[in-house]
Amino acid sequence: MTEVRPLSHCNGVVTIPGSKSYTHRALILSSLADGESVLINALRCEDTEHTVQALIKFGVEVFWESDRVRVLGRGGKFKGTDDRIDVGNSGASMRFLTALAALKKGVTLLDGSERMRKRPIGELLNGLGELGVRAYSQKGDDCPPVIVESQGLQGGTARIKGEESSQFLSGLLMVVPYALRDVNIKLTGPLASKPYVDITRDVMSAFGVEIQSQGYDSFFVKAGQRYLPQTYRIEGDASNASYFFSAAAVCRGRVKVKGLNPGTLQGDIGFLKILERMGCRVTRGKDWIEVLGGELHGIEMDMNEMPDLVPTLAVTAAFAQGNTVIQNIRHLRFKESDRLHALAVELSKMGIRVREGEDWLEIEGGKPHGAEIETYDDHRMAMSFAIAGLVIPGVKIKGERCVDKSFPGFWETLQELYKK
Prior knowledge:
This protein has helices spanning 20-32, 46-57, 91-101, 122-130, 167-175, 194-206, 238-251, 271-278, 310-317, 339-349, 379-388, 410-415, and strands at 2-4, 11-15, 34-40, 61-65, 68-74, 83-86, 106-111, 134-137, 146-150, 156-162, 183-191, 212-214, 218-221, 231-233, 254-258, 281-284, 288-292, 300-302, 323-327, 353-356, 361-364, 372-373, 395-397. It is of the alpha/beta class. It is globular.
């Protein structure tokens, strides 16, 4: 358990690591390219390490070298063996590797933590089935463990729902250039977390493959396209930057985050506009962003496209005047924890009134007090509530090493705010 010390004065500069979303996708595409790719500023954390270890089992050589990683891609021709892949608690690894397993010959069993066994994947399995791959849930509950029996991806048309996760669509998009025939993917119903699909397309384009689309309703990928090896720089992680922007807001101080592209496609950069609406001032440079905190007031916000930042916003809202209503976030119930319920319980421990609906939270800002925070082995719960401890004494974070999932250096980076 870690107790966070309040800051007497908040005026800090921090540098954040590379984006987890970009690192995952670049690893997958590098493995598919024929030859050596070098990923600069790649994020090495539990989640991306799970992806790397699986790629090695698929016969791909991967070498971490400081803040870069070398990947010797196999041109889509993976080792034809029967494998068991453990993805731990990494949803992106589970979804992307399930899709990737469709390209190798043999049987692949993909499994993970107890929480992973409750996270839905049925729509991705249905999509693979429509493209000629036998992929199914071992227990028949549309959740992992997953078995993929493949002789390669045939192609054709797949219809999937995307309201639970955009990763189903991203996983398919990344592998279908290697199908025998053209692929058309049609979305039935709304798509959650659209900016993550934009990231997928951005990385695919950088590695030489283009997608034709009609908005977010249908996607056409011509067969025969191939990824080309790249030296590719991964930009800073907007999700991980959000905790330090929140620190400036709740402390009414100033925090400058370096290594972040203000024009990024990462949807979580939208948190800056939220903070401006709540009363902060934001300055953007070429590769840095600074937030100056002010008197915070509550807002109403649809967070469907920024689900990972709901915990950050919820904790920030606890220090605002008035009520904050966070809407359209049902898919948070399928994350590393049921984040909607977890936030309601832990904010209540701090003396904050919270109302929880099926797909919304209402937080009444006030004067939070210290508490022991249960993290539910959820990295974003740990990092969000740590920020509250910069303002009020007695905030203790249980299971604090769960941050290793996405930001192993979080606690060391937080210490930078204490430097005068």
